[in-house]
Design a protein that fits this description.
about 260 residues; three-stranded mixed sheet; 10 helices; 9 strands; binds coenzyme A
């Protein structure tokens, strides 16, 4: 498995997928999204893997969508934008539908899509210095493809606050609202993740898959094809709007967006 933007470690039934764009805080573009999808699918089929851990190399877990890529996407056709948005929605679904238990190992920034990746994994462990936010509205877009998983984790009430304010919050607040299960000191992160993974190794793999299916069938609204397609359409339509162009350009040019001046 030769990846450009990922590294894999597999030991004792525990596979760790490392997002590996540290100079971009593991922001994801087409390549990283496609590779994540491929890695989750392969590891889900790999008989030597029982538990899949997702982490980030460098200072952050993930700074979400690569804003350079989002800026390029504003110039894409509607069809190209939809294909792109569907690819991210499909990757999130591959993680969500993995038969094997998944753990998010979160340190540093988990922003935008990074928050989505934290929520889509079955268990999330964060360090005391981790920070979270659904920052999308600051860039004139919305947390669309990650929306089903974030709302599922934190509930409608918290989603209204954080989707609309784009406030940053810390790991303790993330635990309070149900985004992460556990918070630990940075030096303890690998130990905590290993302890959870070890607990997961104890359960029967088919039973764990059945438990995941059961939970899925019990949730208020399953993340079905209709929801997936709605979220892809939603982000694809928003990317080329004036607010999205301005918000993304302002970030990349290190200046406040125009709407702050009114
Ligand atoms: N897309 C593209 N590039 C990004 C990025 C993103 N999502 N997040 C960070 N980067 C880049 C920065 O532009 C910067 O590039 P440069 O070295 O060419 O100037 C580099 O990563 C380092 O980021 P910087 O902001 O200088 O580091 P920091 O430690 O002060 O802050 C973050 C790190 C992640 C907290 C900050 O960059 C940030 O808030 N990023 C935006 C995250 C976000 O809201 N993502 C959701 C998008 S929908």
């Amino acid at each position: 498995m030769d990846y450009q933007a990922l590294q894999l470690d597999i030991a004792d039934g525990i596979a760790t997928i490392w997002m590996n764009r540290p100079d971009r805080h593991n922001a994801f573009d087409e390549t990283l999204i496609a590779e994540l999808d491929d890695a989750f699918r392969r590891l889900d089929d790999d008989p030597h893997t029982r538990v899949i851990v997702l982490g980030g190399r460098g200072k952050s877990f993930s700074a979400g969508a690569d804003l350079n890529w989002m800026r390029r996407a504003a110039g894409y056709t509607v069809e190209e934008n939809l294909r792109d948005a569907r690819a991210l929605a499909a990757t999130l679904r591959s993680i969500d539908r993995a038969h094997k238990p998944t753990i998010a190992r979160i340190h540093g920034a988990a922003l935008g899509g990074g928050t989505g990746l934290a929520c889509v994994c079955n268990v999330a462990i964060a360090t005391t210095e981790a920070s979270f936010a659904t920052t999308e509205v600051k860039f004139g877009i919305v947390p669309a493809t990650i929306g089903p998983y974030v709302v599922r984790a934190i509930g409608e009430r918290n989603a209204y606050r954080y989707f609309l304010t784009a406030e940053r919050f810390d790991a303790n607040e993330a635990r309070r609202i149900g985004m992460v299960h556990d918070v630990c000191a940075p030096d303890d992160l690998d130990g905590r993740v290993h302890a959870i993974a070890s607990s997961l190794l104890i359960g029967g793999p088919r039973a764990q898959f059945a438990a995941k299916q059961l939970i899925h069938s019990l949730v208020h609204r399953a993340v079905d094809e209709v929801v997936i397609e709605e979220t892809a359409q939603c982000i694809a339509n928003l990317r080329a709007t004036p607010d999205a162009k301005e918000g993304i350009a302002a970030f990349l040019e290190k200046r406040p967006p125009g709407w702050l001046e009114v």
